[in-house]
Amino acid sequence: MSFYEEYKQKLTSPKEAVKIIKSGDRIQYNSYNGVPPALDRALAARRDELEEVILYTSVTLFPLQAIAADPESRHFIYNNMHASGHDRKLAQAGNYYYVPTTYYELPKILRDDRRDVVLLHVGSMDQMGYMNHGPNAGHAQDLVKAGKTVIVEVNQNMPTAYGSHDVAVHISEVDLVVEGDQQPLFTLPVLQANDVEKRIAKWVMTEIEDGACIQLGIGAMPNFIGELIADSDLRDLGAHTEMLADAYLKIYESGKLTGRNKGIDKGKIVYGFAMGSQALYDFIDKNPVCATSSITDINTPHVVAKNPKMVAINGAIEVDLFSQINAESSGTRQISGAGGQLDFMLGSYMSEGGKGFICLPSTFNDRDGQLRSRIRPTLSPGSIVTTPRSVAHYIVTEYGVANVKGKSTWERAEEMVKIAHPRFQDELIQQAGEMNIWRRSNKIR
Question: Residue 380: inside a domain, yes or no?
Fold first, then answer.
């Protein structure tokens, strides 16, 4: 049987494909633009026929219809490994459950905890029978291996992402095929940095050297760092990142992203998944300079560390005087997820000359418009430690850079007060004294 014949034999409608799902099944969508929209709608239409179906995914770019159709969670239980903006509203309503996960461990978790049905959004089949995962490869093939039944939704608009392995699923690995909406991928706007974010970015820039290998996340501040790097005198930078974002386009177009100094994958822009503008998706399409792979090859700390001068730049919600970092919750309410922050904080410090940065504004305005400090004596009640104090390295606000690695509790407290908003420094010093982590010999500024 030819690959084309096998494809036609497995081809069905979304409605027919999801009939294989039964009550009590544990099913998983891929993440990012790998979430299959037509299959999601078809599953939503089966709501009243199903009970206790557990649906797993992470980082959704659109509201899941299956979950929206069941706001009281009578039919679908929603387990998510990294909340998006859509998911935050669900968490507030109480029909969302977070799965704490260190991203580089996810492939092993899936091997140990298989899924009944896996559903993925993929590109058109090529002549060798492969359907590319596009910008969604991160853990896609790990899902294929973990799924007792695998269903793919084909979209001819999915870009073809090159990489060493785990970039595509073969028709022989698939149980059912559907052809979906053939719509363009979901894009994210390129956000513009505000004045505080620009000041933070400029502090980070003082610590980046020629030959550094950069890991950036998404958002206004990382995008501005990309602009600053593009306009700088830095040379021979590399890219090894969990997420490829638009910031890298500016660095590449400036000629500074050569990858010559990388310890592995020299000359390649290496990433686990991509989210951003259509220009970003067009850039990775059949581009040999880009290489995607399983998150095992991207996020595992000792792999990250093979690149010298690894610079990891990530964000946080709050940090306390002990330098514990919360990057995922507001109290007990889940805001995002652990993602790969811990992976890259560990890997960057293991790297020769590497640095891990956690960036956050020093303050925020609460619901009543009151100015509050993000540098706190201890984390807010119920808040989650995403990166423990033993792993924290550089913490950056608009007031400067604090290097807490290897420092005692009183030294960390001093470093954290230095980068706090001046309005809150005296109060933080008093609270540090009450916690016995402040010495009279401490100096500020």
Answer: yes
